[in-house]
Design a protein that fits this description.
By secondary structure, the protein is of the alpha/beta class. It is about 35% helix and about 25% strand. It has nine helices and eleven strands. The strands form two sheets. The chain has a six-stranded parallel β-sheet, with helices on both faces. The chain has a five-stranded antiparallel β-sheet with strand order 7-8-11-9-10. The longest helix has 13 residues.
């Protein structure tokens, strides 16, 4: 089970924290507002009141042992910068940061943030899904239940054709395209044979896509 800390529990941060927890991840949610912490306490693994600008607080919480930190602090640029610096200095393996504009993004890039998200361009649910399922290269949500995912071809599929696998009947998934060496093959035929390195574009409901990701 992967472990995360989400710092800043505004609309975006709380959305990420809840979705990560719903994906089966261990989530520590943190904010300086006791009211926001209380609101999310039943929807995550742990929720604490604290200031991520204080490195000693983060040390006490054991953040260096977590897999990923999501710094979702709002418009307070200095707080966002200090929290990100602390995460990098404490050795958190992967640090994702929310930026509210391009200037903020450039600052976070200089600090070594591994991924920067501008909420107007990427919503919290999509970010959480991509973090919780790192083998998914891209995900497009069509509705609450259906989506399109790009995943590396499962090893067990290599050398087999779509007809051999009968994915639609066995999993309920629809293979709508295959990306190979940068070229997209839309609606591949039944005789299409998978090779290592292929990227599979799959349409299905949430449970079906999760099955494909675990193959």
């Amino acid at each position: 089970m992967k472990s995360y800390i989400v710092i800043g529990l505004g609309r975006f941060g709380s959305q990420v924290a809840r979705q990560l927890h719903a994906q089966g991840c261990e989530v520590l949610a943190m904010d300086i507002s006791s009211e926001l912490v209380q609101q999310i306490s039943n929807d995550v693994t742990h929720a604490v009141v604290g200031d991520a600008q204080d490195k000693e607080v983060l040390k006490a919480l054991g953040v260096r042992n977590l897999d990923c930190a999501v710094v979702a602090i709002g418009d307070n640029l200095s707080a966002s910068v200090l929290a990100t610096m602390n995460m990098k200095e404490l050795g958190v393996p992967y640090v994702v940061c929310k930026a509210h504009d391009e200037t903020h993004r450039k600052v976070l890039e200089k600090l070594g943030a591994d991924r920067i998200v501008i909420p107007e361009q990427e919503n919290g649910d999509r970010l959480a899904r991509s973090l919780a399922t790192p083998n998914v290269l891209d995900y497009i949500e069509l509705s609450e239940e259906y989506g399109i995912a790009e995943v590396p071809v499962p090893q067990s599929w290599c050398g087999k054709t779509l007809k051999d696998l009968n994915v639609r009947a066995k999993l309920g998934a629809n293979i709508i395209a295959i990306r190979r060496e940068g070229k997209l093959n839309v609606s591949p035929g039944a005789d299409f044979q998978f090779r290592e390195g292929d990227i599979v574009v799959v349409l299905g409901d949430t449970k079906t896509l999760e099955k494909v990701q675990k193959l």
